[in-house]
Amino acid sequence: MIKRVEINYRGIFQKNLGKKIGSDIVIIASRMGRIGFSNGRYSDSPERNGIPCKYFAFVSHDLSEEELEAECGAKLDIDQCDISVVLDDTMLKGVEPWGWHGVRPINEKVQPNGTLLVVTKRTPDELLEFIAKKPYSWKLATYSGDLSFGGLWVFRDDLTHEKTLGAVAGIDSDIIGIEAAEGYLRYKTPKEPARAEAARLAYEEVRKTVRTVKPGEGVEWKHEIPVLPKWFEFMEGAAVPAVKREFSLGPKGQSRNETFKRGTTKNQRPVVRFDLCTKCTLCWLECPDQCFDQTDDGLYDIAYEYCTGCNKCAQACPVKECIVMVDELQFTDDSSPWEAYKANPEKYTEWAEDRKSTGRYIHPMVTGTGLEFLEGELVPFGGKRASPKK
Amino acid sequence: MIAEEPKTKNVYEREDLLTGCQAVSQGVRLADVDVIAAYPIRPYTEVMDALSKIIADGELDAEYIIADSEHSQFEIVKHASSVNARAFAGSSGTGWCYGFEALVVTATDRLPVLFLVGNRALDDPGAFGVEHNDAMAVRDMGWLLAWVTTPQEALEHVLIGYRIAEDKRVRMPMALAMDGAFLTHSQHMVKIPTAEAVRQFLPPYDLGEGRLHPDNPISIAPQVNEDWVMELRRQNWDAARRARGVIKEAYREFNAVFGERYSSPFFTEFMTDDADTVLIGLGTVCAPGRTACKRLREKGHKVGFVSLRWFRPFPTIELRESLKRFKAVGVIDRDFAHGSPDDGGIVMHEVRSALYPLKNRPAITNIITGLGGRDVSIDDCIRMYEIAQKSKTEDKLDNFVTWIGVRE
User: What's residue A384's pLDDT?
Assistant: First the structure.
């Protein structure tokens, strides 16, 4: 018997969190007399900021370590898993870790009756609006928590690690038991009972939130999975044809790489108030991924499929409330915001303000900056002229 | 086979979850290394991360020098070794090749530094995954070269490696190779030996009259040209031959201190007693290889697996004696030797050459697989067994090499 746990995390920001969870599953399992080991999907490296990555933990009660290694460790990725942990709920929109991989459903590896385990503030029903349907039934469970980002390489010690251990125990005690998890946390940090308590709370929480997802429940997956060429079907000499540079005004005016869009890297996307825009060009200039397409009226459309959510445009924009970063799960598609604005400026603006709301969460991208909460401002359509940021 | 429990009590102080790289760092700590030179390249780098922490935590008193390139890195440890400092470095892939000039002279100067080679494809194109060609590059240069397959073996072979390399009869640098990702980055529970047990096994490094020191004035590597080089090569050739005996001795001693960890020093046989067909390979391919072997045994196939550990010196006699018992041998190469005889891989050529003097040789077939970090599954290994089994009766001359795992 083999139990496979997959831990989906955002590269660099959550690497140590992912690794700690994988390691501790193995240590707790081995304290229970089970055999285990942990590794990461090596091809994920080097981990660019925010890129979806995976860590794994494997546990068995009866196999030798070598057989477990042969079944799980000799492979780069797994075929299926008992539990797939998701450490950032915006990854539910799909994961594309590298070129020619395609945008894959987050629950791709969840086996029949396996569980997708998500740390989130949303309900399982809300999450199912983003997750691909499967031909068999599987389970979805949530435990509550904020996005655990600590900056580059930094482990943000906010109990997500302990909660995840408890949640895994709550879903499948054949992987780790909750008493063993609590015992280990108490042994490791005897003066910090909150750690074991957090594990217990998440353990109880997932047992309440877990629900069965019926075959066919979920969304139709629209992303194609690329088929790689055979050895004699491509250019020799380690050369790859580049995308021919083309440019015209309007949405999707620039030629772009169809085989690596990178949009699943973001957990926030920039929402633009075209009516406040002064056409200063800074967003277009600053964007490191050339996501802004100039339009014939001097505004800039955004190709969201290619946006990595880096926040540079929002930082560069000199106008208050004009470009604001918003949680990615507020959006169900990547259609052109400029087209929506042109079709109905008033309706678009109302929609944009509704998405933006007034809460601003700035996750630390740089070590030591910490999570910032700012109060934003509602700016109704036509109600106020563009004003500079202070 | 590997015995589970050591005979001697209290040779282990604790058990930790460690990657292959971290396990090597624990070996370096226990070997009480004096000088470490670091320069980063994936996948070996984690050993240097771990060592810098070990030193910062006060668990090892060593000079930790950050070099400006692999060439400097290897020169630093070479020179450190010449003044009787136990030295450690390592690299991967093209980084290892960048320092090649230094690697070659470390062997000629007979300085027993231990290097970790986290096997990595020689990019271009950009690739981090395992291929054995990087470490194989030193195979003819007077190096000791061995592959380990688990973090536990990795830790132990730092100790075994220093003991053999520093032995007066050997004095050769040691390349400890391990598969990138599959071992360097895989975390397993590892038993950490006590310092006392290590002291029993690994004597202090003593260069004796070869030590570069004002009290012992010598000059290393002067210009000698035609007058001396051939004799120096002859010394080195002899040392490599002597190393085989020293290796056997080292494993005997290791088993005496730590319990029966290793049944044979050079390679490990699995289910070979009555086998007619075996696969042989280096590195972590042994895990799917042995598991495939077990599955085929359940169906009545007489198959076995030979996990080759030592590549330099090559265990000619021992391997010849072992492999002559079988009807067919499938050699797994996680490397390439483009344009070589029969277009086979490096390991195949060595194994076939070792078998040549036999009157009745087993049928040999060659499998190239797992390049650039491509995974090798249990099913892939079952296919390899089928190919090797067929080679007993089929004329394989036209189809000697099979690529497994390539998109075709």
Answer: 64
What is the model's pLDDT at position A45? Answer: 81
Asked if the structure places residue B318 within a domain, the reply is yes
- State both tokens at A127: 């999450």
Asked if B328 and B360 touch (Cβ cutoff 8 Å), the reply is no
**Do residues B305 and B323 make contact, with C-beta atoms less than 8 angstroms apart?**
no
Contacts of A73 in chain B (CB under 8 A): 182, 186, 284, 287
pLDDT at A385: 65
The last residue of a domain, from among A198, A213, A228? A213
Separation CA B332–CA B402 (nearest Å)? 10
Domain count, chain A: 2
B373 neighbourhood in chain A, CB within 8 Å: 42-43, 76
Both B176 and B96 in a single domain? yes
CA-based torsion, B127, B131, B133, B135: positive or negative: positive
Structure tokens that stand for B195 in this block:
């310092």
Whether residue A177 is found in the same domain as residue A44: yes
Closest CA to B384 of B318, B295, B264: B295
Helix (H, G, I), strand (E, B) or coil at B132: coil
Contact A251, A334 (CB under 8 A): no
Is residue B384 a part of any domain in this protein? yes
Rounded Cα gap, residues B285 and B333, in angstroms = 10
ipTM of the complex: 0.91
Q: Tell me which of B190, B224, B258 is where a domain ends.
A: B258
Residue B103 C-alpha from the chain's centroid: 16
**Segments forming the whole domain that contains residue A200:** 3-213
- Are B49 and B150 found together in one domain? yes
Q: Looking at the predicted structure, is the pLDDT value of residue B5 above 90?
A: no
Within this chain, do residues B48 and B189 fall inside the same structural domain, yes or no? Answer: yes
- Return the number of other C-beta atoms located less than 10 Å from residue A364's C-beta: 17
Q: Whole domain around residue B211: which residue ranges?
A: 12-258
> Given B180, B189, B406, which is nearest A30 (Cβ)?
B189
Q: Is A37 on the interface with B (CB under 8 A)?
A: yes
Nearest to A145 by CA among A209, A57, A96: A209
Clarify whether residues B272 and B220 are in a common domain: no
* Per-residue pLDDT tens over the stretch B233-290: 999 999 999 999 999 999 999 999 999 999 999 999 999 999 999 999 999 999 999 9
Mean pLDDT of chain A: 94
Q: Same domain, yes or no, for A283 and A362?
A: yes
User: Rounded to whole angstroms, how far apart are CA atoms A187 and B271?
Assistant: 42
Whole-number pLDDT of residue B138:
98
B129, part of any domain: yes
CATH value at residue B384:
3.40.50.920
The amino acid occupying position A238 is A
Question: Would you call B375 and A27 a contact, using CB atoms and an 8 Å cutoff?
Answer: no
pLDDT in tens, A21-34: 999 999 999 999 99
Q: How far is residue B148's CA from residue B24's CA, in Å, rounded to a whole number?
A: 11
Integer Cα distance of B297 and B41 in angstroms: 41
Number of domains in chain B: 2
pLDDT single digits (tens) A302-347 = 999 999 999 999 999 999 999 999 999 999 999 999 999 999 999 9
- SS3 of residue A264 by DSSP: helix
Q: Which of B258, B285, B311 is the last residue of a domain?
A: B258
- CATH number for the domain spanning A345: value is 3.30.70.20
Is residue A389 included in any domain, yes or no? no
Q: What is the CATH number of the domain that holds A117?
A: 3.40.920.10
Tell me: do B251 and B387 sit in the same domain.
Answer: no
Residue A118, classed as helix, strand or coil, is strand
Sort out which chain A residues have CB atoms less than 8 A from B187's CB and list them.
22-23, 26, 37-39
**Same-domain pairing of A43 and A146:** yes
pTM for the structure as a whole: 0.94
Low-confidence stretches of chain A (pLDDT < 70) are 383-386
Tell me if B408 and A30 make a contact (CB, 8 A cut-off).
Answer: no
